[in-house]
């Protein structure tokens, strides 16, 4: 009876070929992930007004905006952030803005 060790077994994939390309994708790799660039929820622990990192976020004021939670150093910086006017270029556009114009980037 012959017993083969794992080192003696032939590999199905020949990595020694110079231009080896995987040709059989896994089922999960056949379609683009819908979640790749769309995280479910984001948390920012850097105060956008002061630039300070928040160590213990549970003791600081926060603001939830859609899927983003922003933490602030103090209630004063949170209120200043809320009261800050938007700097949106809609007033500079030569045409009416649509939802597609505000895609970020």
Short description:
With 105 residues, the protein is largely without helices or strands. It has 1 helix and 3 strands; from the N terminus they run E-E-E-H.
Topology:
Blueprint: E1 42-44, E2 62-65, E3 68-71, H1 75-83
Parallel strand pairs: 1-3
Antiparallel strand pairs: 2-3
Radius of gyration: 26 Å
Main sheet specs: 3 strands, mixed
Question: Could you give the distance between the termini?
Answer: 66 Å
- Spatial order of the strands forming the largest sheet: 1-3-2
| Total strands | 3
Residue share in β-strands: 5-15%
Q: Give the mean pLDDT.
A: 76
Following the backbone from N to C, one meets helices and strands in this order, namely EEEH
Shape: elongated
Residue windows where pLDDT falls under 50 for at least 5 positions: none
Structural class: little secondary structure
Compute the number of helices.
1
Q: Classify the helix fraction into a percent range.
A: under 10%
């Amino acid at each position: 009876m012959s017993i083969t060790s794992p080192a003696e077994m032939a590999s199905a994939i020949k990595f020694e070929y110079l231009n080896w390309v995987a040709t059989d994708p896994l089922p999960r790799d056949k379609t683009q992930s819908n979640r790749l660039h769309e995280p479910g929820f984001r948390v920012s622990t850097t105060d956008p007004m002061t630039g300070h990192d928040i160590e213990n976020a549970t003791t600081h004021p926060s603001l939830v905006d859609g899927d983003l939670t922003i933490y602030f150093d103090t209630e004063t910086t949170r209120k200043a952030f809320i009261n800050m006017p938007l700097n949106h270029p809609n007033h500079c556009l030569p045409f009416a803005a649509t939802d597609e114009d505000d895609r970020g980037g």
